[in-house]
């Protein structure tokens, strides 16, 4: 809302899965719902920020008062993120596909009694690492997520250093994590909040509450808007 603590700030959020084309009708995807990323974009807008939400294909409604940029693939997502800069804060909640088909077939691949075609994969760009390692125009706060199934804090702290981001929200997506129905696609989340100073275990909460807690930390870290 106008007059909120993020008034005058630009917050960039990625959300959802990516779809990586194999041919004109087939793609590689994952189970990300986009709920956490969309909740963060909505909370940032409620706090008064100008929000750009770069989202892969999701079935969620657009959050109110955000500038939506819809993309399909990881490469599209990186281009949309770069086009949306500069930003004060960038939050990378999307579940970006690690790999895409090395060659996208221009026409639908046919069965025609042949053996199944091989599917060669190639690595996608790491959007978070690319933006976090920028020397010019890096957002003041670059925030990533880490979904782990074991040693959550240790793996995520190593990931924070490797990717060059400021903060990571790490969650346990194993079946044993204790969240009924699971984190992926569910409405609740239990995260560890990791910074250079260490890790905090946040209590299980709705994805909206996790988003609001994150926004409160961002407000505290940015401080008051500098008057030019
Ligand atoms: O490496 P991993 O996928 O576990 O890292 C997760 C974090 O990195 C998330 O914040 C995700 O949005 C981001 N990421 C990205 N581009 C990729 C892979 C991950 O922005 N290609």
UniProtKB/TrEMBL annotation:
Report keywords, A-Z.
Decarboxylase, Flavoprotein, FMN, Ligase, Lyase, Magnesium, Metal-binding, Multifunctional enzyme
One GO term under biological process is: pantothenate catabolic process
Binding annotation for CTP: 98, 108, 125-128, 145, 159, 163
What GO terms fall under cellular component here? phosphopantothenoylcysteine decarboxylase complex
Q: Which cofactor does it need?
A: Mg(2+); FMN
Keyword Cytoplasm carried by entry: no
Role this protein plays:
Catalyzes two sequential steps in the biosynthesis of coenzyme A. In the first step cysteine is conjugated to 4'-phosphopantothenate to form 4-phosphopantothenoylcysteine. In the second step the latter compound is decarboxylated to form 4'-phosphopantotheine.
| Protein name per Swiss-Prot or TrEMBL | Coenzyme A biosynthesis bifunctional protein CoaBC
Gene (name only): coaBC
Q: Which residues of the full protein are shown?
A: 181 to 408 of 409
